[in-house]
Amino acid sequence: MKLYEYAMAPNARRVSVFLAEIDLQVERINVDIRGGENIKQQFKDKAVNGLIPLLELNDGTCIGESVAICRYLESISGQATSLFGDTPLEVAEIEMWHRIVEFQVMMPALQAFRNLSGIYKDRETVVPQWGEVSKQRYLAALPMLDKQLSENKYLASNRFSMADITLFSIINFMRVLKLNVPDDLPNLQRWLSETKERDSVKSTELDRAATA
Ligand SMILES: N[C@@H](CCC(=O)N[C@@H](CS)C(=O)NCC(=O)O)C(=O)O
To answer: 48: number of CA atoms within 13 Å, CB side?
Structure first.
């Protein structure tokens, strides 16, 4: 199996933290997305949407989308417990918070990044005003997370889950726009400091730094 990634990218980061959490090693191949390697035909022949992360199985089957990749890897790894939840209630709560994070936090955050930095202006129309609106939407979503974390150690369950991994990957990435967690959100700050101390997060920080 080969995992195509760009370690700095938040979607790649969530797969690498997930892999470290389940203690699974996979061959890694760096794809220079900023240099446009992913929009070349050779990569597009593998990835239907031309995006990383991408998992290529030994028989050539390719799986895109970070959550699909995580689900596949977890199911073949024979874990006793799932980062997507075990009981019906836990599965529902993790799914709920994960979707909230993806739609209300990650999506505006990435729109802010792409439209304010113009990093992919070689392949998409960049609208700085939309970037600014998206940045405000990202910031406006954070108090909801702070409230949830005022009563819970982790975002969705009484244990670390996929919802925490996705939230960490995007909040940590937003340092590129100099957006730190505001001081009036102490519960989110507490959760971020604790998450940074996890072995899975620390081990992937090294990979990320190598491609920064
Ligand atoms: N929903 C996808 C998003 C994948 C995605 O947006 N990947 C970004 C890196 S975080 C990428 O490949 N960007 C390169 C580009 O847009 O050309 C997932 O969860 O994997």
So the answer is: 5
